Amino acid sequence: MDTELNGSELGTKDYWEKSYTREIKNYKSHGDVGEIWFDEDSQIRIVDWLMEQDQVEQSARVLDLGCGNGMFLVALANEGYKQLTGVDYSPKAIELAKNIAENLKLDINYSVADLTQSLDSQEQLDLGSFQVVHDKGTYDAISLCPDNPKEKRSQYLATVEKLLTDKDSLFIITSCNWTEEELEVSFGEKFVKYHTIPTPTFKFGGKVGSVVTSVVFKKNN
């Protein structure tokens, strides 16, 4: 894929640290868990879709990449899923997510991890492998990084591949910056499309499009 997005502060760790520092303050003051980045409905669609999958039992190990405030995992925990893990490269995001889970008395594991860097053997061992790996907006944020976004996306995908248990594990990604076709091309070396989760469409100039794209991939081998 030759096309690159313009770099943005949304692709920097400093932006998210400052953002989650504010959200921690708001949460402690008002109980406000903060924003669900771009399209809260997509989170509901993913949870509903997972609950319909016979192969995804409530005991399945689920990993949320770039978990932010952790509300996706909170939603799964409220539906009875038990082995939930969230990672984010922002320590402040993990602090907020832990506070929310603790106050809700939910058993969710959270840790700081930068998925654009190669995980060392201990980090890989600590995380383990997962039947479901979920990304809503993290690949987008990496793509907006002002510094070497292509290399960072490549390392990210290599890390995701290692985190999936086997060829039947699911990698679910929701993007507002890349189309389904672009994701298929970018992921084609390591992943194959398994399913498209329908999202709202719009029609403009005789063409039909979507504001967000949600696609489920599996390992190529």
UniProtKB/TrEMBL annotation:
E.C. designation(s): 2.1.1.-
Alphabetical keyword list: Cytoplasm, Methyltransferase, S-adenosyl-L-methionine, Transferase
Residue ranges of domain Methyltransferase in the record: 59-196
Domain of life: Eukaryota
GO BP annotation list: methylation
CC terms in the record's Gene Ontology section: cytoplasm
UniProt-annotated location(s): Cytoplasm
GO molecular function, one term: protein-lysine N-methyltransferase activity
Family: Belongs to the class I-like SAM-binding methyltransferase superfamily. EFM4 family.
Entry-linked PANTHER family: EEF1A LYSINE METHYLTRANSFERASE 2, PROTEIN-LYSINE N-METHYLTRANSFERASE METTL10
Function: S-adenosyl-L-methionine-dependent protein-lysine N-methyltransferase that methylates elongation factor 1-alpha.
Protein name: Protein-lysine N-methyltransferase Dwil_GK15575
Organism: Drosophila willistoni
